[in-house]
Amino acid sequence: MINGKRIAVVMPAYNAEKTLERTACELSDLVDVRILVDDSSQDQTVHLSRNLGILTFVHDANYGYGRNQQTCYREALAAGADIVVMVHPDYQYTPSLVPAMAGMVASGVYDMVLGSRILGAGALKGGMPFYKYVSNRFLTAFQNLFLGVKLSEYHTGFRAFSRELLETLPLHENSDDFIFDNQMIAQAVMFGFRIGEISCPTKYFKEASSINFKRSVQYGLGVLATTASYVLHKWKLRRAPIFDTTGRRATLKYYSETANGPAIRNAYQTNDPDGIRASFADFPDRSIDPPRGGVVKPATLKNL
Q1: Per CATH, the architecture of 7-243 is what?
Q2: Nearest to 128 by CA among 154, 149, 156
Q3: What is the DSSP string of the chain?
Q4: CA atoms within 13 A on the CB side of 181
Q5: pTM for the predicted model, two decimal places
């Protein structure tokens, strides 16, 4: 807890068994709740996470990085977090910076804080591939120009958020893929939230997750599309749901009617007599993991 603010760290995970323990062990005691959402890993990530005492949730299929984040933020809000810090469990970023980033949000000066790999010139030293560095610089300059802000980069996965920001942005309009990160920053700019940065060392190594060249190209095209969508929406030339105040936001009640019956009722003793919908905000004992399959499928989630 910092300045009376409850801190949650969320870790979107997929096959993170080899690096999870190193990441978790470096988290500060100031963190009030640690949450991991597993996107149907093929290794022992879930088993290890539970053994480490991390509040663990499991997707019943591999829905993607963006969908994983949606679950992370809903669970953090349900746990009563005032500040949420996303840390990748692949140990590419430095977990020891969580208190500094959370403190910048707790101060009331910033609503979002980015751990920048570019500030301090540590990206290339940390092993970032040169083509990724070049594309990072080009895409960042492009977005700074059209979004009217001045950030050192838009592509880091190390971030801290205020509760207000997470409850305001229409996150359920975003992509389920890696472009979710970029869309979220563009949304924060559109909605007038304050963004700060802190220099963050980075490490590229075999076990650290990193998208390949093909996916990098797809991501880059997604950044250009997000920027164009931002400009057209701001100029009122074309409405974009991801930037609209009526867009679908994160909600604590995310269990759908497909996740029904005795499994939920028995596991969580929900006060819903039909056992159809359940919100973790209703459960005093949050140590129990949801039944596998409890997270709704894409088609159902879109309707919540």
Answers
A1: Alpha-Beta Complex (3.90)
A2: 156
A3: -BTTB-EEEEEEESS-HHHHHHHHHTS-TT--EEEEEE-S-SSSHHHHHHHTT-EEEE-SS---HHHHHHHHHHHHHHTT-SEEEE--TTS-S-GGGHHHHHHHHHTTS-SEEEEESTTTT-TTTTT--HHHHHHHHHHHHHHHHHHT---S-S--S-EEEEHHHHHHS-GGGS-SSTTHHHHHHHHHHHTT--EEEEE------TTS----HHHHHHHHHHHHHHHHHHHHHHTTSS--GGG-TTS----S----TTS-SHHHHHHH--S-TT-----GGG-S---SPPPTT-SPPHHHHTT-
A4: 20
A5: 0.81
Q: Is the pLDDT of residue 180 over 90?
A: yes
The phi and psi torsions of 263 (rounded to 5 degrees) equal -60, -50
Which regions of the chain carry the CATH code 3.90.550.10? Answer: 7-243
Residue 271 has pLDDT above 80, yes or no: no
280 Cβ neighbours under 8 A, 6+ residues apart:
75, 78, 79, 252, 286
Q: How far apart are CA 174 and CA 177, in angstroms?
A: 9
For 217-265, what is each residue's pLDDT tens digit? Answer: 898 899 999 999 999 999 999 999 999 999 999 865 544 333 333 332 2
Question: For 136-174, how does the pLDDT look when each residue is reduced to its tens digit (9 = 90+)?
Answer: 899 999 999 999 999 999 989 899 999 999 999 999 999
- Rounded Cα–Cα distance for residues 40 and 60 (Å): 6
